[in-house]
Design goal:
Elements lengths: L1 E4 L8 E4 L9 E5 L2 E4 L1 H8 L16 E8 L11 E4 L2 E3 L5 H4 L10 E2 L11 E5 L4 E2 L6 H20 L7 E5 L5 H10 L3 E6 L2 H9 L4 E4 L5 H6 L4 E6 L4 H9 L1 E9 L13 H6 L3 E4 L5 H12 L7 E4 L4 H9 L6 E5 L1
Parallel strand pairs: 11-12, 11-14, 12-13, 14-15, 15-16, 17-18
Antiparallel strand pairs: 1-2, 3-5, 3-9, 4-5, 4-18, 5-6, 6-10, 7-8
Helix pairs in contact: 3-4, 3-9
Bound molecules: zinc ion (2 copies).
The site of one zinc ion has 7 residues, from helix 2.
């Protein structure tokens, strides 16, 4: 099978011919139909974060396709079912996080396309308990971006406990941001979209954002504070400075939701006085659970969300990475097989 492999940090990915993996006990073999490119894959390929993967490895954690074979202990009835392989490749299943619906915090978790090979390949194996069924009403091309970009922004809106008529500021309108705008609208919030690319802001406007701020030409803090400030600011841009802007755009009682992860273990200065007297919360939100993903699929199947994505060939993976790093990709880039 064809796979895009990281052979060394910072080097272009190599397209290699690898044997189709056999599913171990408890695993399924999935024939990948669509696989999205997430910023995390680029961080993985560059070895940007404090915990690094081990080359050679195959990135990709938005893989979707039918189950072709099952390993021992997995019901045969799964064969033929279309599933999504998310970032959470597996978790222990019995720690306090796993048993309380927070498997995404499990300390023994395995991450797809990071600690185990992922979905930039024609086939991938995955833990049968970690994959999520894709409903018939959701195409594989749409399901791929929903599997990380969708569930991650959906969870960010959930953990911020957004209620109707609150203002949600979304910093960074790309593969994730265009979905964050929609989930914030679904819960009834007024939405401010912040980006530096007019095309991306145009997409946010089309998707129903109430306020658009071009941070290249306008100060988002002043623009958002002019409307009373944001109740929730969701940061999806991998630039540490944007976190500071997002913090300063909050009103009292506001919640800063950190989702993007800048390289090099960046820190944000949190002024203690303002945080205390303003009752500000700073929240970290990491992807979402299998249940969250099932909800994301259900919303999409019901026509409540729209995916902005462009298809690409796996052979062009390195050009696609440049496109994302250059901020030129308007929505998600999805490899089609
Ligand atoms: Zn991702
Ligand atoms: Zn666990």
């Amino acid at each position: 099978m064809k796979a895009a492999v990281v052979t060394d940090f910072g080097k272009p990915l190599e397209i290699l011919e690898l044997p189709v993996p056999a599913p171990d006990p408890g695993q399924v073999l999935v024939r990948i139909e669509a696989s999205g490119l997430c910023h995390t894959d680029i961080h993985a390929a560059h070895g940007d974060w404090p915990v690094r993967p081990q080359p050679p490895f195959t990135p990709g954690h938005e893989g979707v396709g039918p189950v072709e074979r099952v390993g021992a202990g997995v019901p045969e009835s799964m064969v033929g079912k279309r599933v999504a392989i998310p970032w959470l490749g597996s978790s222990c299943g019995h720690c306090r996080y796993c048993v309380s619906g927070w498997e995404t915090l499990c300390l023994s978790q395995v991450n797809t396309g990071y600690s185990v090979d992922g979905c930039f390949a024609e086939y991938a194996v995955a833990d049968a308990r970690a994959v999520v069924g894709v409903p018939d009403g959701v195409t594989s091309l749409d399901a791929a971006p929903l599997t990380c970009a969708g569930v991650t922004t959906y969870k960010a809106i959930k953990v911020a406990r957004v209620v109707p008529a609150e203002r949600v500021a979304v910093f960074g309108i790309g593969g994730l941001g265009h979905l964050a705008v929609q989930y914030a609208r679904i819960v009834g919030a007024f939405v401010t979209a912040v980006d530096i690319e007019p095309d991306k802001l145009g997409i946010a406007h089309q998707l129903g954002a109430d306020q658009i701020v071009n941070a290249r030409t306008h100060d988002p803090v002043a623009e958002i504070q002019a409307l009373g400030g944001a109740d929730v600011a969701v940061v999806l841009a991998t630039n540490a400075q944007v976190f500071e802007q997002a913090y300063r755009s909050l009103r009292r009682g506001g919640r800063l939701v950190c989702v993007a992860m800048p390289a090099d273990d960046a820190v944000i200065p949190v002024p203690i006085f303002e945080t205390v007297v303003g009752g500000i919360s700073v929240i970290g939100s990491i992807v979402g659970t299998r249940q969250d993903l099932a909800e994301v699929f259900a919303l999409h199947a019901a026509g409540r969300t729209r995916i902005i994505a462009e298809t690409r060939r796996l052979d062009d993976v390195n050009e696609c990475i440049d496109e994302v790093l250059g901020g030129r990709a308007e929505g998600r880039l999805v490899f089609e097989f």
